[in-house]
Amino acid sequence: MNSTQTSKIIQIIRLSRLLLHIFSGLLQSIPYPYFSRPRQKYMVQKWARNLLEILNIRLSCSGSLPPEDEQRVILIANHISWLDIVIILALYPVRFVAKTEILSWPLLNILCRRAGTIFIEREKRNDTMRVNQHIGEALVAGDGVAIFPEGRTSDGTVLLHFHASLLQAAVTVQAILYPMAIRYRDMAGARTASVTYVDLTIVESLRLILKQPTIKAEVYFLDPISCNGKNRRELTRLSEHAIAETLQLPIVHKAPEKLSGLPGE
Description:
Layout: H1 8-29, H2 37-54, E1 57-62, E2 73-77, H3 83-91, E3 95-99, H4 108-114, E4 118-120, H5 127-140, E5 145-147, E6 159-160, H6 168-173, E7 176-185, H7 202-211, E8 215-221, E9 225-226, H8 232-247, E10 251-252
Parallel strand pairs: 1-8, 2-5, 2-7, 3-4, 3-5, 6-10
Antiparallel strand pairs: 7-8, 7-9
Helix pairs in contact: 1-2, 1-4, 2-3
């Protein structure tokens, strides 16, 4: 066994705890829709933080999170792993925009539905109009929304071109954008590829993560961007450059598209 990996016994223990935690989430999801928003956010945040603890993912956060009473908040983040979702929920519970492919994930698809995920069929270009309407309704109702505008996951060495289509709702309801930069490191402080969700199944990805003794997740909340007087493309480019500059990553503007089944444009 590689000395930098956890033993098989620890991996089995982690997996067992994870499965129990997922089933616990399924049970909690039954009464979840009937609780108040503050109670829902507390439940989601606690569940996400416990999941990170099970996987021994150490989370550090820099910058200022949106105030608790802030209205019409949209989080804009780069996308490396399915863990991005859990990390965001652990810090600032929101609703996500997700591709319909995620509905094929066993058990987790139920949690996503119960949590109010907004699903989009990316193959249908006109579906963005419907999704923008739902995003706007969620924002007006008091829910925050998170979007991964790259539309797919990267390996973390570049920032993929941000798509603007799902930011029309931000313009319509005059939301506040909070760009978020996410990065993962190993025990030695180097960038780790063990969390990247590219050309892998969810099971293969989980196996890689379970092997790691510790994963460090760094999150940077950047200066908020007002939508006042800006169109969706201006907002997209401002968010894109802010995240790229923070992570010191080049922006790839013409990468071929690959559907990952995770939240995106």
